[in-house]
Design brief:
single chain, mainly alpha, two-stranded antiparallel ribbon, two-stranded antiparallel sheet, 10 helices
């Protein structure tokens, strides 16, 4: 009985590894097919409401959250890692590019916090001082909405800051950490913890969030609603009845009605986290290989200026 269970266990492991290997090799075939036939999945970008456009959109929806897409990204990561191990300067280039990207979008998106404060002040003045029920902004064609619409829109600014500043804050070392053993271990042990953390925690969480958020997004943009359990053939059949149905329902009759934007931000958040997990893994690997002298190498951290060193890391 135990021998049968052992055989079954190792058979399941072997089957899983064979499935992974098939999908890794299949990623090259899928990539070649996608590049050679872009009209099958990209025609919807020039939307003409034709049958071909509808089928193209359904293929795009399917592949965006599919196993095939996951293994394409995973295989690309493996290939880049294998190449970068032999060309360390190339790996440092990837780290600097991804960290620079995180810093750039984070520093730009941080201005949404200022917009949020200014808009809240305007709302208070319009309600309490001028007793107006609505506000109008713009030149030429103005955006004329109820004050409750602008009040609820403040949540969107907050979401922008969270999504686009999360990786920037990671680069800057601004996230709160609960340190039980990390501070007392050696430099290389820390880098091992960082590498394991990026592979075991950051990447899987980003993938799961993407897989959930992708179909959650499209279910609020089109009908018939796509499902993560739908096969490609079923989605292509659904394309015959496809039409855009962008969600414009607010929590209140005159409140903010652009909640589909939050679904887009959820997918964006997952993508940014995954990209930075790669950067963090590569940086940890390089600092492990090169030793303590490479800690913080090429790291672009913000500073408060000369004489403010005591306050660094507290803002």
């Amino acid at each position: 009985m135990q021998d049968d269970m052992s055989i079954s266990f190792f058979g399941a492991i072997g089957g899983f590894l064979w499935w992974v290997a098939q999908n890794i090799f299949g990623a090259f075939v899928n990539f070649a097919a996608a590049v050679s036939s872009p009209s099958l999945w990209a025609d919807w970008l020039s939307w003409n409401n034709t049958t071909e456009d509808k089928q193209s959109l359904m293929r795009f929806v399917y592949y965006g959250g599919s196993v095939e897409f996951f293994f394409f990204v995973f295989t690309l990561f493996l290939v880049l890692t294998a190449f970068a191990i032999y060309f360390r300067g190339f790996m440092w280039g990837i780290v600097r590019a991804l960290e620079g990207f995180a810093n750039t979008i984070g520093r730009f998106a941080a201005w949404a916090g200022l917009l949020m404060v200014v808009q809240q002040i305007i709302i208070v003045f319009m309600q309490r001082v001028f007793a107006r029920p609505d506000m109008s902004f713009g030149l030429g064609v103005a955006l004329d909405k109820d004050i409750s619409w602008y009040a609820e829109e403040l949540k969107f600014y907050n979401a922008l800051v969270i999504v686009f500043c999360v990786t920037y804050t990671f680069v800057q070392g601004g996230h709160v950490r609960v340190d039980l053993v990390y501070g007392g271990i050696s430099h290389r042990a820390k880098r091992v913890v960082d590498m394991v953390g990026s592979l075991i925690f950051m990447m899987p969480v980003a993938v799961l969030t993407w897989m959930y958020g992708w179909f959650f997004l499209w279910r609020h943009l089109i009908v018939p609603k796509p499902s993560a359990s739908d096969q490609l053939e079923r989605l292509v059949l659904k394309a015959r009845a496809l039409r855009w149905n962008v969600e414009t329902i607010g929590f209140s009759p005159s409140g903010f009605n652009g909640y589909f934007l939050f679904k887009i931000l959820l997918v964006t958040f997952a993508g940014l986290i995954f990209l930075h997990a790669i950067a963090f893994f590569y940086r940890s690997m390089l600092e492990f290989i090169e030793g303590e002298d490479s800690e913080g190498k090429y790291l672009d951290k913000d500073t408060l200026g000369a004489g403010e060193e005591a306050y660094e890391g507290t803002h």
